Amino acid sequence: LAMAYLAWGLAQRWCPSSLQVISFPVVQLHLNRTAMRLSQKDFESAMNQVKLLKKDPGNEVKLKLYALYKQATEGPCNMPKPGVFDLINKAKWDAWNALGSLPKETARQNYVDLVSSLSSSLESSSQVEPGTDRKSTGYETLMVTSEDGITKIMLNRPTKKNALNVEMYHEIMHALKAASKDDSAITVLTGNGDYYSSGNDLTNFTDIPPGGVEEKAKNGAILLREFVGCFIDFPKPLIAMVNGPAVGISVTLLGLFDAVYASDRATFHTPFSHLGQSPEGCSSYTFPKIMSPAKATEMLVFGKKLTAGEACAQGLVTEVFPDSTFQKEVWTRLKAFAKLPPNAMRISKEIIRNREKEKLHAVNAEECSVLQGRWLSDECMNAVMNFLSRKSKL
Ligand SMILES: CCCCCCCCCCC/C=C/C(=O)SCCNC(=O)CCNC(=O)[C@H](O)C(C)(C)COP(=O)(O)OP(=O)(O)OC[C@H]1O[C@@H](n2cnc3c(N)ncnc32)[C@H](O)[C@@H]1OP(=O)(O)O
């Protein structure tokens, strides 16, 4: 059946005229209304509505609509079953035959109801940005949506400049794991509001468990290692849409993405020494490789902030777009990427990443262990205290 669906587009040329109608299918049956008498006018109007739909609803739906149309106009399927190699006609026959002895009138009503639900769902999705029609709920700090083969994970604490609190670390891991298994071809990480992310939420340092700061640092290192590990192991193309300034861990992780698109408003800042900390996100390994050891030192050791153009020149950013057209241009491009064969993309990513995976995990472990020590240092504690007591900002 899957093969028949694939061939469906090709079949449009030679299909019978009623195939116009099966161009779009059915989603929701209002069974309680099947007894209602439908006028021929309602049915014809639904057929016209189908032709006006702007978006293709997919082959599975098309087959259902085809079956209902045939049942409504010709009654139960009494055609000979097509041969196994006649994939398209067999899929159509199966769908029609599955309706059994459903009365013509009920089929017409179901057809009209389904077209109606289809029209409203497809109209609404065409009016919104990609990724806004299928929202996954249950996240406090993220907005996760999936559409057009793209899962979008949006950091959603705009009033805190999308700083990563402990909950957000957990939710990102959860969203990545879900995205790795969903039916999307690519995954995008971006930020809501004016910032991409201001990095680690410095209030993460404030709630000290009964085991004291040592326990806090130990738990922090475990969390960080697991978090970065999810990026190392993510199996599909992972793209960052850096919509504004990026700080700390939101910058270092970019070295683990497969492409990084940035608005010209974005900046890239890793002030680890200022904060008494040290690099993470595998940046101690990826940055020198991407941009040369000296340029990496300027960023990771001296905390030099790069503009989007500079980050692009150094290879950290793939391409920079004017902020005014950033969303439109990047989404257009991503939608085209998402149409590529997903398995081929996965396999190509795998072959690129596999060579590095072991090394990246080792680097991650080492960075976390070093940071665990840094978090207990006076340098780090003072820097965090200064920020939290409003004495300092970047
Ligand atoms: C042992 C602990 C373990 C914990 C868990 C481990 C997790 C792993 C950690 C991995 C290591 C990561 C390192 C990093 O990411 S280093 C980078 C850290 N980030 C910063 O230092 C940025 C601090 N923020 C600022 O300097 C400024 O806010 C900024 C320049 C980003 C924006 O300035 P602006 O003036 O435009 O805006 P505000 O300062 O008024 O910000 C608005 C509100 O947002 C709050 N905010 C912003 N960023 C952070 C942040 N990173 N942490 C906490 N809060 C942040 C800011 O306080 C404002 O809040 P209020 O409105 O309530 O005042």
From TrEMBL:
CDD domains: crotonase-like. InterPro entries: Acyl-CoA-binding_prot_CS, Acyl-CoA-binding_protein, Acyl-CoA-binding_sf, ClpP/crotonase-like_dom_sf, ECH/Chromodomain_protein, Enoyl-CoA_hydra/iso, Enoyl-CoA_hydra_C, FERM/acyl-CoA-bd_prot_sf. It catalyses: (3E)-tetradecenoyl-CoA = (2E)-tetradecenoyl-CoA; a (3E)-enoyl-CoA = a 4-saturated (2E)-enoyl-CoA; (3E)-octenoyl-CoA = (2E)-octenoyl-CoA; (3Z)-octenoyl-CoA = (2E)-octenoyl-CoA. It comes from the Eukaryota. Able to isomerize both 3-cis and 3-trans double bonds into the 2-trans form in a range of enoyl-CoA species. Has a preference for 3-trans substrates. In the C-terminal section; belongs to the enoyl-CoA hydratase/isomerase family. This is Enoyl-CoA delta isomerase 2. The gene is ECI2.
